[in-house]
Amino acid sequence: MSYFRELLPNLMHIRHATIEDAEVLTGLAIDTMQESFGPPHNPAELVDAYIQDTYSVPILRQELADPRSTYLLLETPAGESLGYARLYRHAPPRRMRERRALEIQRIYLRQACLGQGLGRQLMNYCLEQARVEGYKAVWLGVWERNQRALAFYRKIGFEPFGWHYFQFGPERQRDYWLHKSL
Any idea where the N-acetyltransferase domain is (predicted)? Predict the structure, then answer.
């Protein structure tokens, strides 16, 4: 994957995933989850338990078919998947003042792609999609110990508005809620 470092971010392509992408998306989701939250951040068994409950081809097919859900795939010009995001349309937490808000429920890149501007490119696409759909804000949850992601979101202009517990396999972890006005 080191050759990705040489590709310019503007050569990447972002597209809406379809049900036919369920297998590719499942593999990408599992890989990025293990890279992002596996050892040394969490024990492998904890990550595996979460993956077992959350990422499978049938589960992703169901999510892809849900009209409230949009998956975006970030790909190379040759069609190799490097990252993804999920936009989810539902009511934001009560603590969030702006009620017309879209959740960026997942946004992940392969580790080899971090630090190259691809995360910003994918995030900008998510923000533009929210604007086009008439949303006034976006929100997301991020693990309190994910300092890299927290710094990324702060740099883009996200602000904290609360927190909640997130069930990660058998463990309860704390996520911060962040929002950004559009």
Answer: 12-182
